[in-house]
Amino acid sequence: MKTIVIGITGGIGSGKTTVANFFKDLGVPVFIADEEAKRLMSTSIKLKEQITANFGSEAYKDGQLNREYLASKVFNHKEALEQLNKVVHPAVAEAFLEWKNKQDSTLVAYEAAILFEKNRQEICDYTILVVAPKETKVQRIQHRDNAKRSQIEARMSNQWTDERKMKLADFIIKNEELIKTKEKVQDIYKYLKNIHKI
Ligand SMILES: CC(C)(COP(=O)(O)OP(=O)(O)OC[C@H]1O[C@@H](n2cnc3c(N)ncnc32)[C@H](O)[C@@H]1O)[C@@H](O)C(=O)NCCC(=O)NCCS
Ligand SMILES: Nc1ncnc2c1ncn2[C@@H]1O[C@H](COP(=O)(O)OP(=O)(O)OP(=O)(O)O)[C@@H](O)[C@H]1O
């Protein structure tokens, strides 16, 4: 039977992982691209070599991915970010396909910050865009990661605006009140189960 892929995306701090976790609670297996990217960047010899060649040996500290260093190199330099995306994204895409084939579920979810930007909706049957006001997103990330506003805004500037992404999404979740977000996830889940007779 065909596996139905729900793509979950949204800007930094919108609440993608929160939405993905609500799907997980309903039994939907979730692939988190950010996490898989970091796992591969820490374990794949080929990726490690490519990243070190492009960004220098500081990209790894004691064998571990130096996230702060890489973030400082890429989020204010479009070409550097493109360079990193070019080596990491194909590896993540391959890992997703392998993962998908192993799932014993008709519905699976693919959560990624960068989805429409890289035309990854092509691998999804449905897409969900998670949105929240800019100030809310900044405050969530400041609170969660103790990040500076300038660092958050640098990442935002490498992502499409919500308005641009809204035109492409099948479902939009306005993630403000958590209980409403949870209900919306349940509604989408029921709708998909119903139309696919799962
Ligand atoms: C530079 C890195 C090491 C910084 O790691 P860090 O733990 O600080 O951030 P993390 O990966 O958890 O991402 C947090 C948020 O940053 C933003 N972000 C991450 N990667 C990108 C990107 N390529 N383009 C735009 N925004 C991005 C997203 O909003 C994301 O949700 C990491 O973001 C990275 O390797 N990014 C490039 C690979 C990538 O695109 N990963 C995302 C999914 S494939
Ligand atoms: N509706 C909400 N109300 C209050 N806090 C929320 C809500 N949604 C998410 N949060 C909190 O905001 C932070 C960011 O949420 P989450 O990690 O789900 O976002 P994300 O889009 O996956 O972030 P990132 O882009 O950094 O990966 C988390 O600390 C989360 O607990």
TrEMBL record:
Reactions performed catalytically: 3'-dephospho-CoA + ATP = ADP + CoA + H(+)
Top-level division of the source organism's lineage: Bacteria
An example Gene Ontology molecular-function term: kinase activity
CDD domains hit by this protein: DPCK
Pathway where this protein functions: Cofactor biosynthesis; coenzyme A biosynthesis; CoA from (R)-pantothenate: step 5/5
Subcellular location: Cytoplasm
UniProt keywords, alphabetically: ATP-binding, Coenzyme A biosynthesis, Cytoplasm, Kinase, Nucleotide-binding, Transferase
List of residues binding ATP: 13-18
Cross-referenced PROSITE patterns: DPCK (PS51219)
InterPro entries recorded: Depp_CoAkinase, P-loop_NTPase
Catalytic activity, EC: 2.7.1.24
Family statement: Belongs to the CoaE family.
Function, in words: Catalyzes the phosphorylation of the 3'-hydroxyl group of dephosphocoenzyme A to form coenzyme A.
NCBIfam families, sorted: dephospho-CoA kinase
Name of this protein: Dephospho-CoA kinase
Species name: Psychroflexus planctonicus
Upper taxonomic lineage: Bacteria, Pseudomonadati, Bacteroidota, Flavobacteriia, Flavobacteriales
This protein's encoding gene: coaE
